[in-house]
Amino acid sequence: MCEVVYELPKAGMSYEGFVTILLTAIAVILAVLAIIIAVAAIVGWAGFKDAVKDSVEDLVGPAMDAKLKEYPDASKYIELYQEIQSLYLIHKKLVDKPEPKDLASSSNIAVQEEKAKPAPVEQTAIHLAEAYPGEGKPNADGPTAAVPTEPNPGPSHS
């Protein structure tokens, strides 16, 4: 009853075992290769970026400096702004009406009442335009009344 059911390993390797070991080795090699490529890409990208930055500075730097020399310095703009601001203040003093000054109350009642009166409003005459042809004269019943006219029969064709 106590039989041992063990098989002794054969001296050679089976096909399934060989394929398993081979595929595992290939997966490990590919993983290591992927890590090496990733590190090389990061280092290469940083180096490439620095190389491009240096070459652009060498090529564009002198041309940019020459172009910027054509424009005035920033201090010139500050001076112009201050000059415009002072001219604006002078313009404001000359053109704008000054604020009215408050006067103390007068002891004379007539002066106080005169100050309280509103300024008289000038009345202007409204000139009505002449009536258009075909409009009647104003009526007592309404603003305008049309004067009936005979219809124009038009040219006769007889």
Descriptive overview:
- The protein has 3 helices and no strands.
- The chain has 158 residues and is mainly alpha-helical.
- It has a domain at 15-97.
- The N and C termini lie far apart (146 Å).
- 0% of the residues are buried.
List the helices and strands and how they pair.
Layout lengths: L14 H54 L5 H22 L13 H8 L42
What descriptive keywords fit this protein?
158 residues, mainly alpha
User: What is the terminal-to-terminal distance?
Assistant: 146 Å
State the helicity in percent bands.
40-55%
Low-confidence stretches: none
DSSP strand tally: 0
**β-strand amount:** under 5%
Shape field: elongated
Mean pLDDT: 77
Give a brief description.
With 158 residues, the chain is mainly α. Helix content is 53%, strand content 0%. The relative contact order is 0.03.
